[in-house]
């Protein structure tokens, strides 16, 4: 189940990145690059930081083909995809928690301590979106008050400590996904945001 949602999340991230590229009038190569960075960037950053080789997409090259195919397909149906705002938000929320759990698993298998496990999960979940926004010359969404990284941290913490307390892994995965997904959806609906630091004092 986790693997299936992972592939769905990759496709969704690729399609949203393709739309972002289209709004900035990028060529087809740019569309594919932005899609790959968005969908695979978080896992790549995690693997590089942890020294986990080969990178996920290097070990599984078909992931590049899947992401590029989703991006190019989006070009053909862009007008339809652009109208599916809520379904994509929900799938993105689901992808966030799944990427987080997968990232935590990689760090766990390498024997890292709790903090690194949770941070690895967060990196997997959010870095792709950060790279997308930077390449699009935008302030990353995750730095603009969106309750996104926090959801990833909560998901990772539930997953890690649930396993440490000896609960069944399937139960822990389900619980982490349910809490993380619900928290993200509530944040979208109720417009929950992180406190912002605003400093605009005139220093002249």
TrEMBL record:
Transmembrane segments: 62-81, 88-108, 114-135, 147-165, 171-190
Residue intervals of the Glycine transporter domain: 5-77, 90-161
Domain of life: Bacteria
Main subcellular location: membrane
Matching InterPro entries: Gly_transporter
Keyword terms of this UniProt record: Cell membrane, Membrane, Transmembrane, Transmembrane helix
Keyword Coiled coil: no
Keyword Transmembrane helix: yes
Subcellular compartments: Cell membrane
Pfam families in the record: Gly_transporter (PF03458)
Membrane topology qualifier: Multi-pass membrane protein
Family, similarity comment: Belongs to the UPF0126 family.
Protein name per the record: Trimeric intracellular cation channel family protein
Origin organism lineage: Bacteria, Pseudomonadati, Pseudomonadota, Alphaproteobacteria, Hyphomicrobiales
């Amino acid at each position: 189940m986790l693997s299936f949602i992972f592939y769905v999340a990759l496709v969704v991230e690729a399609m949203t990145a393709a739309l972002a590229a289209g709004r900035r009038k990028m060529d087809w190569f740019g569309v594919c690059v932005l899609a790959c960075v968005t969908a695979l960037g978080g896992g790549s950053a995690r693997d590089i930081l942890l020294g986990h080789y080969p990178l996920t997409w290097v070990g599984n090259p078909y992931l590049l083909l899947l992401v590029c195919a989703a991006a190019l397909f989006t070009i053909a149906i862009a007008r339809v995809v652009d109208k599916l705002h809520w379904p994509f938000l929900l799938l993105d929320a689901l992808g966030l928690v799944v990427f987080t759990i997968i990232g935590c698993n990689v760090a766990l298998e390498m024997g890292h301590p709790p903090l690194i496990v949770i941070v690895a999960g967060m990196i997997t979940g959010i870095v792709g979106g950060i790279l997308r926004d930077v390449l699009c010359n935008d302030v990353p969404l995750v730095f603009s008050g969106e309750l996104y990284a926090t959801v990833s941290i909560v998901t990772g913490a539930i997953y890690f400590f649930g396993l440490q307390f000896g609960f069944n892994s399937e139960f822990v995965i389900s619980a982490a996904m349910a809490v993380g997904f619900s928290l993200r959806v509530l944040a979208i609906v109720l417009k929950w945001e992180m406190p912002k630091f605003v400093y605009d004092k005139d220093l002249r």
